Amino acid sequence: MANKLITIATFPDAVKAQIMRGRLEAEGILAFIADEHTLTNQPFLYMAYGGVRLQVAEQDREQAQAILNTGDSFVVETTPEYLPDQCPNCHSDKVKETTSAAKQSLLTFLRNALTARSHQPVVRRFTCNNCGYKWIIEN
């Protein structure tokens, strides 16, 4: 059989297998996932099945394993499409950073004190003087 499928990797869940499948298919290697639905619906069978299996054609084995073994990580772009001092609506540079002048209520203070985390996001509010658009940026 020339098109025999072989398992090149197993994963604890279908999400990781789908990510690797996408990585292989981006390189032009046709990949399949076995036991995805069974283990997603009945995760207690993980030990019996050995995990979700990623399979490729036998002739693609070496190339697929080389792709999976590369240390390349996924890159997430964090640069916004616009600068904070530029309006995302009209791209004007007539932008003013606004802050709320209202005092914090006792309930808001208690909520913030009881749910304090080690890292609170910084929220900046902007208003465009050209078109009136308002937006928030969290850092």
UniProtKB/TrEMBL annotation:
**Which Gene3D superfamilies does the UniProt record give?**
UreE, C-terminal domain
Q: Where is the DUF2007 domain?
A: 6-69
Source domain of life = Bacteria
| Family matches, as SUPFAM superfamilies | GlnB-like
Any single Pfam family the record assigns to this protein: DUF2007
Q: What is this protein called?
A: DUF2007 domain-containing protein
Q: Which organism does this sequence originate in?
A: Adhaeribacter radiodurans
